[in-house]
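Suppose a colleague, Dr. K., hands you the sequence of a protein chain of 91 amino acids and asks what its three-dimensional shape might be. Before reaching for any lab equipment, you can write down a predicted structure in token form. Begin with the sequence itself:
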Amino acid sequence: MLCTRCGRREAFSEAQWTGFAEKGGPPPPPLPAGMCLPCACEDPDLRAQFRVWGNQVSVWGDQRTAEYVRRARELAVRPLEAIDRFVDSLR
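The predicted structure, expressed as tokens, is then:
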């Protein structure tokens, strides 16, 4: 679906943003239906909401990075277990 404002970029539906969040993605942005992210960011009425959403996404990104580093450290400490898990995943 194309953006109703610019007609050039893809606009995600609310269901698609919710689907991203359910799969471990960031929380959905405060977008009106049918509007792409760049057009919504340019809208002066939505700027304050996007600042709050940007902070939420930043926290989500920090948490995701911390989880990734934690798992990488666990694998570095126990390399044989990591190899076993990898081999099991191939079966």
